[in-house]
Write a structure and sequence with these properties.
By secondary structure, this protein is an alpha/beta fold. It is 46% helix and 15% strand. A hairpin with a 2-residue loop joins strand 1 (39-43) and strand 2 (46-53).
């Protein structure tokens, strides 16, 4: 009798596990369908386009894309997190997708502290007091800055390539030739020819960067074309050129961000719980993990994603990225 009872119990538990897995899969599929629905909200100087999926009372997760990518980098990550009970917000940065400036008079400024301010303004508009942040490329830099300047707004951080806070002073310092070679487009954008070239060939430029930054990633034409639509934003060229010229000290930026830049120039330590990530085949410029370990004073882990993973881990290794976000939230 005991054996029969034990067998029945194990069978029931197995069935429950299967049903739970099926429900989670169906839930993720449902959220994946919702990912194409773009919301709009006025926040700060912008009307921000964003995806918002998952339970509204769930722990907020904000996922930030880089250049020249868009929210599609999280098309597999966000539904999985939503199915686990998180409220997942994936905004288009200024100059991307359906995000627009509210005024024609606002400078099309791409300096990093401006983008971080945009995210805080979005949180305020959505009445989100605190969120788990995840990002890569521009998105990681933006998340790092929010964590450094507004740590009370960040429950935990997942940052690809770790600590990306810098300053104009640091950007003026020359690097060894091999390192400078990786920044060829930054110098190209410093010229008028570069500005015009990017404006005239934005999609081709983006495809080349994708290939160089993730040499092992075999993305499809359909995937690229879906993402590249976000680069048709009327402010894309202005924001991109501004971002890279600001880094080289060729643009002053806006005075209202000066206090932030002064704090960031000191390269502040990030105190929030953090998991940093690096791909094992990242073809874009990036610091070595040991170079930034001391910049994180809270609970910390570093993970190297293996399997020919490049510069865009949420798209190239979505399951590993989901796990990093979940684990960071419970550090």
């Amino acid at each position: 009798m005991k054996t029969l009872f034990r067998s029945s119990l194990l069978a029931a538990l197995a069935l429950t596990a299967v049903n739970s897995a099926v429900a989670a899969t169906e839930s993720a599929a449902s959220y994946a369908a919702e990912f194409s629905h773009i919301h709009q909200i006025k926040a700060g100087v912008l009307n921000v386009g964003y995806v918002d999926i998952g339970p509204r009372d769930g722990q907020a997760v904000i996922l930030l894309h880089g250049w020249p990518y868009d929210i599609q980098s999280y098309v597999s990550v966000a539904p999985e997190l939503a199915a686990k009970g998180y409220r997942v917000i994936v905004p288009y940065l200024r100059g991307y997708g359906s995000t627009r400036f509210l005024s024609d008079q606002t400078p099309r400024n791409g300096q990093p502290s401006a983008m971080a301010s945009d995210v805080v303004a979005l949180m305020d508009a959505l009445n989100i007091k605190q969120a788990v942040f995840g990002g890569f490329d521009w998105g990681a830099r933006t998340a790092d800055i929010v964590a450094a300047l507004w740590p009370e707004r960040v429950k935990a951080l997942v940052s690809v390539s770790g600590y990306l806070i810098s300053s104009q002073e640091a950007g003026r310092k020359p690097l060894p030739p091999q390192a400078e070679l990786q920044w060829w487009y930054q110098f190209y954008f410093a010229t008028e020819r570069g500005r015009q070239g990017y404006a005239n060939n934005t999609h081709d430029f983006a495809r080349l960067i994708w290939q160089q930054a993730s040499p092992g990633w075999k993305f499809s034409d359909a995937m690229f074309n879906q993402s590249a639509k976000a680069l048709d934003n009327p402010d894309q060229t202005a924001i991109t050129i501004s971002n890279y010229r600001w880094r080289l000290g060729l643009e002053k930026g806006e005075q209202k961000y000066d206090a932030y830049e002064k704090k960031l120039a000191a390269l502040p330590v990030i105190s929030v719980p953090t998991i940093t990530i690096e791909g094992d085949n990242n073809g874009a410029p990036h610091p070595a993990p040991q170079a930034y370990r001391a910049k994180f004073s809270g609970k910390y882990e570093h993970r190297t994603f293996t399997g020919n993973i490049g510069h865009n881990p949420p798209a190239e290794a979505p399951q590993d990225f989901v796990k990093a976000v979940v684990d960071a939230a419970s550090l």
